[in-house]
Amino acid sequence: QVQLVESGGGVVQPGRSLRLSCATSGFIFSSYNMQWVRQAPGKGLEWVAGIRFDGSDKNYADSVKGRFTISRDNSKNTLYLEMNSLRVEDTGVYYCARDVREFDYWGQGTLVTVSS
Amino acid sequence: DIQLTQSPSFLSASVGDRVTITCRASQGISNYLAWYQQKPGKAPKLLIYDSFNLQSGVPARFSGSGSGTEFTLTISSLQPEDFASYYCQQLKSYPITFGQGTRLEIK
Q1: In B, which residues are within 8 Å of A45 by CB distance?
Q2: pLDDT by residue (tens digit) across B64-95?
Q3: Which of B18, B88, B98, B107 has a Cα-to-Cα distance from B47 of 20 to 30 A?
């Protein structure tokens, strides 16, 4: 069955960096576009970044452009989100999702807390 | 950017009720709209895609309609497990955007 498992979240100070991973199984990872979505505590869903199946195209929300980098390793069936210059407002649960235009499978999420 | 506005933001209803949630787009998005359900502490779950197509495994009491700028999600007869938050999402163009959410609670 399709599984997506995020990891790498934690508590970090403003201005520092963190790398999230999303390990996948149960489907041909290299054939699918992938996405990151986040949710601040008690708030709604916010799309963060997306990457084409072969890594050739990437898109970012304005709120993270220039600070976050999405990437993938198709040999490891894993999606990444490198987050630099973190801000307090980046705090939230980060989900990876499989993109079939809509997002049909989601991970359980990993919590990122940016606080001094 | 395409803005999505959901209404209502909060809805109180009883088991067995029929409820409708509306999602309005700031510009036409054809039928590139999806609906998700999210329960506390859980990941969102895809319910409807392409405005009206039911995702596999989702009960038939859920239905979607609309095209262009106005869309609806209808639950024909609320069940206890349906009390959750609901989000619409547009997939017409980047940046992908979500509505602000509708929280459905038991009356």
Answers
A1: 36, 38, 44, 87, 89, 98, 101
A2: 999 999 999 999 999 999 999 999 999 999 99
A3: B107
